[in-house]
């Protein structure tokens, strides 16, 4: 049995926070991280673009990574309002979320667009946090695995490896609703994603972190983070309050608490 990858706890601030509260949140998190003694964990925050540069500069002296919530697939040029992965990396960001369901919904982003954005992110040596997940209607129609598989395989850039790809399984119906799948349902989908990653990336697929996202809270995180092949969480609402976000970071299991069954590629 191999060691499980180091978990990631990432906060997606979405379109929240002004200068003052965003910097206060980053400051509180930095103070706690610098005094933390606990199992290994990679912590990241993804503030809105308005705060990305200043938060990244402030957190550069800490172990906390900073990421963007989206980027253009293009490099530069006449594209009013767009921001390239290169510009984001240039601010000190280490990762960028691509394919979040709110962007798929609000901006009609297809798997092809998400894939191009992921390629742009990986081109800069940042990690792409690639979101996939089914809607309520797809779940009710028994299509969860089909949808997740299609999104995964069609959105994943060919340049992906364990060092530049993080998958976030976020059932759309669980985002911001207080509803979550059962632990078994989460485990089944994560196992399936792991199997797919094995098929595409061979043994490297074992080390790609697969995060769960969707109504993760201080109360449910302990159990969710112990589901096999859940290698962390992408947290929305609960990442906006230091106490709840910190409880989620503190709930990360010790490496020997996680069973990480390896299933060899066929
Ligand atoms: P909530 O944690 O608010 O449900 O949001 C999850 C999410 O969309 C993270 O990207």
**Main β-sheet: number of strands, strand sense, barrel status?**
8 strands, parallel, barrel
Question: What is the CATH class name of the domain at 82-178 and 188-252?
Answer: Alpha Beta
Instruction: Report low-confidence residues grouped into runs of 5 or more.
Output: none
Average pLDDT reading? 95
Small molecules in complex? 1,3-dihydroxyacetonephosphate
Quickly count the helices.
Answer: 10
Measured as a percent range, the helix fraction is 25-40%
Give the topology.
Blueprint: E1 8-12, H1 19-34, E2 42-46, H2 49-59, E3 65-68, H3 85-90, E4 95-98, H4 101-107, H5 111-123, E5 127-132, H6 136-140, H7 144-155, E6 165-169, H8 183-201, E7 209-213, H9 221-224, E8 232-235, H10 242-250
Parallel strand pairs: 1-2, 1-8, 2-3, 3-4, 4-5, 5-6, 6-7, 7-8
Helix pairs in contact: 1-2, 5-7, 7-8
1,3-dihydroxyacetonephosphate (13P) binds at residues 12, 100, 170, 175-176, 213-216, 234-238.
């Amino acid at each position: 049995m191999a060691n499980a990858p180091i978990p990631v706890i990432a906060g997606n601030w979405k379109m929240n926070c002004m200068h003052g509260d965003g910097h206060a949140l980053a400051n509180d998190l930095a103070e706690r991280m610098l005094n933390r003694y606990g199992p290994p964990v990679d912590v990241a925050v993804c503030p809105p673009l308005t705060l990305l540069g200043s938060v990244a500069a402030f957190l550069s002296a800490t172990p906390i990574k900073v990421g963007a919530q989206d980027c253009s697939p293009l490099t530069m040029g006449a594209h009013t309002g767009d921001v390239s992965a290169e510009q984001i990396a240039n601010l000190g960001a280490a990762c960028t979320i691509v394919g979040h369901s709110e962007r798929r919904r609000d901006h009609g982003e297809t798997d092809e667009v998400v894939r191009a954005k992921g390629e742009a992110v990986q081109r800069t040596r940042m990690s792409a946090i690639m979101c996939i997940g089914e809607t309520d209607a797809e779940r009710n129609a028994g299509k969860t695995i089909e949808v997740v598989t299609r999104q995964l395989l069609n959105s994943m850039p060919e340049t992906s490896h364990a060092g530049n790809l993080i998958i976030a399984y976020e059932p759309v119906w669980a985002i911001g609703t207080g509803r979550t799948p059962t632990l078994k349902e989460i485990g089944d989908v994560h196992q399936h994603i792991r199997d797919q990653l094995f098929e595409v990336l061979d043994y490297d697929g074992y080390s790609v972190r697969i995060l769960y996202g969707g109504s993760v809270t201080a109360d449910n995180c302990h159990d969710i983070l112990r589901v096999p092949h859940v290698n962390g969480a992408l947290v929305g609402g609960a990442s906006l309050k230091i106490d709840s976000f910190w409880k989620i970071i503190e709930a990360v299991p010790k490496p020997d608490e996680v069973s990480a069954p390896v299933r060899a590629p066929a």
